[in-house]
Amino acid sequence: MPDPTARFSNRVDDYRKYRPSYPRPAIDFLEEKCGLSQSSIIADIGCGTGLFTKLLLERNYRVFGVEPNREMRVAGEDFLGQFDQFQAIDGQAENTGLPDSSVDLVAAAQAFHWFEPVPTRQEFKRILKPGGFVVVLWNARRHLSSPFLNDYEEMLLKYGLEYEKVLHRGLGLEEIHKFFGHSEICRGEFEYIQPLTLEGLSGRLFSSSYTPVPSHTKYEPMRNRMNEIFDQHEVDGRINFEYDTKVYCGQLM
């Protein structure tokens, strides 16, 4: 598969505009379980365009946004430019560029499955302060929970590029427990619904790294099928994209 740090370079605008955010109760959950205070410093690893980072900054935390992809990092700096507490870092999970024992919480939202587990774990332990926490979270699309999402999944299987390979990179409890090094992990799950117009659905679809670019022979057939699916399932000009936001947090042993 292509270098994961470059997979989204040509999809930044769609990613910034149309990818889902995260439910605020998930932030409440990690604040409670990780004992955060207003003085807490957070490293958001693989922060992309800053969707999760923004939720942290809105609660007045100081956040280092570590992102290896230049285009994504620049978009994030633009998106989060009004926050004095934000600093973008050119780094990656395995080599963040942050000082030893410098952060209270390391977060990875929608990015952890791209990291190399062993060096990432070593790096997180290095940059965490004693007693610091790690949180891993992602929005899991409900593949078959509605006729719309069922048709959407069939479309991805038919026209997606490397879609099944990306699916197989999904995280299970075994991988999570192995990374944390013990079984005492706090786990939360929260509903998140993203209403989308046809324009939003198109942007959401083509923000994914496994969808064809306009020059590819599968692009127009996929776009046509997307239009059909939207027309079949829209209500008042919108469809609902349903997610389960999965949150895991704990200390590294």
Can you offer a commentary on this structure?
The chain has 253 residues and is an alpha/beta fold. The protein has a domain at 4-141 and 170-195 and 241-250: Rossmann fold (3-Layer(aba) Sandwich), CATH 3.40.50. It is built from ten helices and seven strands. It has helices at 12-18, 24-34, 51-57, 70-79, 117-127, 147-159, 163-167, 173-180, 198-206, 219-233, and strands at 41-45, 62-66, 86-89, 103-109, 128-141, 186-196, 239-250. Strands 3-2-1-4-5-7-6 form a seven-stranded mixed beta sheet.
Blueprint (SSEs and pairs):
Elements: H1 12-18, H2 24-34, E1 41-45, H3 51-57, E2 62-66, H4 70-79, E3 86-89, E4 103-109, H5 117-127, E5 128-141, H6 147-159, H7 163-167, H8 173-180, E6 186-196, H9 198-206, H10 219-233, E7 239-250
Parallel strand pairs: 1-2, 1-4, 2-3, 4-5
Antiparallel strand pairs: 5-7, 6-7
Helix pairs in contact: 1-9, 6-10
The overall pLDDT, averaged over residues, is 92
Count of discrete alpha- or pi-helical segments spanning 4 or more residues: 10
- CA-to-CA gap between the ends? 31 Å
What class would the helix/strand composition place it in? alpha/beta
Spatial strand arrangement across the major sheet: 3-2-1-4-5-7-6
The radius of gyration is 18 Å
The main β sheet shows up as: 7 strands, mixed
User: Uncertain spans, ≥5 residues at pLDDT below 50?
Assistant: none
Shape designation: globular
